[in-house]
Amino acid sequence: MTATRGLGRPRSFEHTSESLFLSRRRFLQSLAVVTSGAAILGCHVGVGTSDSQLTLASTIPSTAPPYPFARNARFTLDRALTDPLVAARHNNFYEFSEVKDRVWKRTEKFRTEGWSIEVTGLVSKPQKFMVDDLVRTMPMEERLYRHRCVEAWSMAVPWSGFPLARLLERVEPKANAKYVRFVSFYRPEQAPGLRDTDWYPWPYFEAIRLDEAMNELTMLVTGVYGHALPKQHGAPIRLVIPWKYGYKSAKSIVKIELTEKRPSTFWNTVQPDEYSWESNVNPDLPHPRWSQARETLIGPNEVRPTLMYNGYGEWVGELY
Question: What pTM did the predictor assign?
Fold first, then answer.
């Protein structure tokens, strides 16, 4: 789950215009140049880091080749894109902080260079892939997706990535593979939330059915807003499943495993009465502590009806 008041409120029910999108991108780049280094704060200011250096813009990567990727026009929205600064400061990423607007301040020590992702389990060709190689060799594209959090807030995001199915095809799932399990990183020395919340069963783990994984909507994502993922969004590679609640989309993944038996999942293990294993967006199925019938778009704070399967029923309805 990802996303402050940003650079102006876009009008509802329309996409952010290309000129506005590019002007925001240039603005973010200029801020990144003006501010010093990748200054991202934890709860305490690090040695040698001044408060004046700690700016949100400095956490957002500059646009550089191979980004941006061409946008796939098949995936359109019924709402404006969320402002990039809103999306960069409103993040559920407990590995860094349980407080949404602190996450971006606590990723300074997190290293994503030379990141690899291992694919193993019930596959004929288990492999380890370098994320940089995937960006160069996979069918990368940008898609506009709705993003719905179980906490009843939502965003509209331009993700850059490729279908998970394309990666799974490379490793050739075996006939008895039925589920796909995802494991996130575990580096307590780089992610203070892992130390602060050591009662959780870290590292983060999620899972979906293989047919869900092979659906064309399911993406592995390495970029957002035309640049590489910021750390608070799940850099350098994360899962995006737009018809499920955001916690199903594991961030900063290090391992993918195919299994025959249904794997456990993080939040379903921690609080099974509140977080189902399947976790499809459903306005008719309330959370035990709140309704899911409506959602609030972050940024404009516009309240809207929740769409069944987050509006992706034509792609996934037949799965259920």
Answer: 0.84
